[in-house]
Write a structure and sequence with these properties.
Elements (H helix, E strand, L loop, with lengths): L2 H28 L1 H4 L12 H28 L5 H23 L6 H27 L3
Helix pairs in contact: 1-3, 1-4, 3-4, 3-5, 4-5
């Protein structure tokens, strides 16, 4: 397994942990009957529970783009120092983003800064893949 794929796996594990946390918090608030129902009634949970859901939804949105480019890079055998560093930056930034989001830490905009750093990491992964795509294009 390449380091980039391993980082994708760790990022996906982070997503899974956030989903489980959200589900557990909602079930704790609303009860087991609600948790196993069709959930026609929205959760009334407050605090960390809805923040956890927002954190995992945000990670999911970003993980789709990041993940596709990691997989494309892997299939195209594009493994550069930039793509590895970008993947590492993505994972650590998303971890900080998740922790600060769930805990409700807003000091100096740390969550937003972590998000922006994660996007920068994604761009660092995308860049070599796009370069390889351009080089392979018959123009």
């Amino acid at each position: 397994m390449t380091p980039e794929l391993a980082i994708l796996a760790w990022s996906t594990l982070l997503l899974l942990v956030l989903i489980f946390m959200s589900a557990a918090g909602n079930t704790q608030t609303m009860g087991l009957g609600w948790g196993i129902s069709n959930r026609d009634e929205a959760s009334t949970a407050t605090g960390w529970v809805p923040r956890t859901r927002r954190a995992y939804m945000n990670l999911l949105e970003n993980l789709v783009i990041f993940g596709f480019f990691i997989i494309i890079g892997h299939l195209a055998n594009v493994h550069t120092e930039m793509s590895l560093l970008g993947a590492e930056i993505f994972l650590y930034a998303r971890l900080v983003h998740a922790i600060t989001y769930v805990l409700g830490i807003t000091v100096v905009g740390i969550r937003t800064v972590a998000y922006a750093i994660g996007v920068a990491g994604t761009i660092m992964v995308i860049w070599p893949v796009i370069g390889s795509l351009i080089a392979a294009s018959p123009m």
